[in-house]
């Protein structure tokens, strides 16, 4: 996997597909969990979606995974994540209508927050082992009703009660949202390897499209 860094924004991992100007490809934006913060991008490759992408290329989608510094949260760095996304949409053959945001644990809280703050930017949301950001209000959750959502959680996750997640699922469905909630019976908090390697989810990532997405013009 080519590892790139860009000054002024978050460091990141990026994997390109064979670009075709006549047929832009989807992009999956991944936000890591708390223990992968720091200044070593290699730690992201040890497990979960980054490892799957690294070991499975070529894939039919672009992949972008920024890294947080120690002590930071994705909610705090929302503007940097969106700026990084904008840069790639403007400079690569990425279909802006087919951007999926996904997060694990701390990254899930960030993915919920960023998707709710910019609902027209994303064609789908994948939440793994994580809570909805406490900063979100029901009015913001309503903005997610147009975004298909996949939620995954381990039944033996001691950090996250099933009941709390089910409450969010019920709220979103009550607002008219499309939400699939998958509970892994033997899973604990660290289910990312199993979730992201599933062929059905991988197909789902490239089958979503949002025709109301905001398009970033190339400079």
From TrEMBL:
Any single GO molecular-function term of the entry would be: hydrolase activity
Q: Where are the transmembrane segments?
A: none
> What Gene3D superfamilies would the database entry show?
alpha/beta hydrolase
Q: Which of UniProt's keywords are assigned here?
A: Signal
The domain of life for this entry's organism is Bacteria
Q: Which residues form the Phospholipase/carboxylesterase/thioesterase domain?
A: 81-193
Q: What is this protein called?
A: Phospholipase
Source species, please? Komarekiella delphini-convector SJRDD-AB1
């Amino acid at each position: 996997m080519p590892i790139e860094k860009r000054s002024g924004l978050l460091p990141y991992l990026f994997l390109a597909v064979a670009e075709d100007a006549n047929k832009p490809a989807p992009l999956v934006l991944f936000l890591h969990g708390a223990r992968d913060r720091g200044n070593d991008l290699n730690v992201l490759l040890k497990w979960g979606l980054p490892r799957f992408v690294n070991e499975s290329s070529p894939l039919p989608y672009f992949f972008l995974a920024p890294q947080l510094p120690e002590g930071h949260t994705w909610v705090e760095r929302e503007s940097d994540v969106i700026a990084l996304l904008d840069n790639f949409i403007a400079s690569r053959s990425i279909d802006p209508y087919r951007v999926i945001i996904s997060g694990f644990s701390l990254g899930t809280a960030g993915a919920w927050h960023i998707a709710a703050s910019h609902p027209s930017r994303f064609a789908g949301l994948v939440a793994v082992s994580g809570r909805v950001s406490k900063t979100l209000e029901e009015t913001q959750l309503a903005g997610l009703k147009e975004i298909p959502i996949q939620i995954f959680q381990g039944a033996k996750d001691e950090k996250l009660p099933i009941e709390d997640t089910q409450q969010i699922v019920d709220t979103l469905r009550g607002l008219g949202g499309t939400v699939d909630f998958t509970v892994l019976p033997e899973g604990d908090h660290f289910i990312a390897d199993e979730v992201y390697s599933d062929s059905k989810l991988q197909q789902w990532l490239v089958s979503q499209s949002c025709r109301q997405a905001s398009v970033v013009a190339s400079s």
